[in-house]
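FAQ: What does the model actually see?

It sees only this:
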Amino acid sequence: MEDKMMSEEVPQSASRRNFIKGVVAAGAVASSSAYLFRGSTVHGQPAAGAVERLITLNVNGQDRRVDVMPQDTLAMTLRYKLGLTGTKIGCDRAECGACTVLIDDVPHYSCSYLAHRARGKKIVTIEGLAENGKLHPVQAAFLETEAFQCGYCTSGIIVACVALLKANAKPTDAQIVESLGRNVCRCGTHNRIIAAVKSVKAASK
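And it is asked to produce this:
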């Protein structure tokens, strides 16, 4: 009697397992389809709720096609999808400035700037400052004055200094301090950073 009950339960258990496997497989297929057809359109228009993921970003003078999730920040996209690791992620909450990049010549914290917002804009990272193998004057000044220690904040500060000098070619000490107030150097090399900016200012006279 017991053997008969067991023999009847086995097909039922096996059937339950097959059902669960089928549900999981169906879910995987649906997920894959959603990814493959994420750019689906209705009568030539994006489907309701659809977000285009394959976008074009102009980075350092080049148009780059990149697959971006709606929640991806520009910092994450630059570092992990475009390989531009000069942009650092420090606090990841828009406080330290290590992730600073130029967007249409204005410095922005890229850790709090969604990549989708940067479409149609001109993005410049620390890698895009040098031209034809020659360092940007601000980069050269930082080397000359040794305006860094650990270097983690340096790329963001250099980018911020470039923006400052584009907007004001002859800033005063107070204006330099105010402009760099959004960039933190935990090593405390602020005096040498100011000296670097002043040396660029002097060279441009």
